[in-house]
Specification:
The protein has 215 residues and is α+β, with helices and mostly antiparallel strands. It has helices at 17-24, 55-66, 86-89, 94-112, 146-150, 153-168, 179-184; strands at 3-13, 46-49, 75-84, 117-123, 130-135, 174-175.
């Protein structure tokens, strides 16, 4: 069966950072909105980039340091999901899984800047290991502009192509997804849930509305 690497973006406006933080950092005892979470395995989750305090404070600080003006509809941070087809992880040791996500995080760090990363945490307590990397979309000249960083449909395809080219150097079994999936992110590889990872506090699964992705 084909194995694909998966890269998705979700933009966030206003201040929904607290629920996202509680979910990513596993700050709740129970997660009714996502029954796939096995809290007995949460001890195996690990950080590639640990948050420096609360998400909101970091996000606000970076925006203020950059001297950015914000509007009500400004995208203040982006949640990135990276994973792979479930088959890819079968038989891999924790060390091998960590190396995969470290390489994926290195790809994003180069693109968005280490100084803009709020947190990068790998969840090992759900059905498929996955990385959540949250960042503030600041350009190199200190403008808050997720549109410029993530781009349009053509840029999303390039993101996918570049991500695949980077990952396949180390993992040659990974295959490139077809163009429509790379542009729209509406199709996930077989065996991988297509629903969005739900935010805590919601009691029902949320419909997918990821901006970009799949491999």
């Amino acid at each position: 069966m084909a194995q694909h690497a998966i890269l998705r973006f979700e933009k966030h406006k206003g201040n929904p950072a607290r629920p996202l933080e509680a979910h990513h950092e596993r700050q709740k005892d129970q997660y009714a909105s996502n029954p796939d979470i096995d809290t007995s395995r949460s001890k195996y989750n690990f950080h590639i980039v640990k948050p420096e305090g609360r998400y909101y404070h970091f996000i606000q600080s970076r925006i203020e340091q950059a001297g950015c003006r914000t509007r009500k509809d400004s995208t203040r941070f982006v949640d990135t999901l990276i994973t792979a087809s479930p088959e890819f992880f079968k038989g891999k040791s924790p060390k091998e899984i960590q190396a995969f996500f470290q390489r994926a995080a290195d790809f994003l760090t180069h693109r968005v800047g280490r100084e803009n990363i709020v947190s990068a945490v790998v969840h090992m307590d759900e059905k498929t290991p996955h990385l959540h990397l949250t960042f503030v979309p600041l350009t190199k000249d200190n403008r808050l502009c997720a549109k410029e960083i993530i781009g349009n449909r053509a840029n999303l395809t390039k993101w996918q192509d570049d991500f695949h080219a980077y990952m396949v150097e180390k993992y040659p079994d990974l295959e490139l997804g077809k163009a429509p999936a790379r542009q729209a992110g509406s199709i996930s590889p077989p065996g991988f849930s297509n629903r969005r990872f739900p935010s805590p506090g919601r009691q029902e699964p949320l419909k997918p509305h990821w901006t970009a992705l799949t491999r």
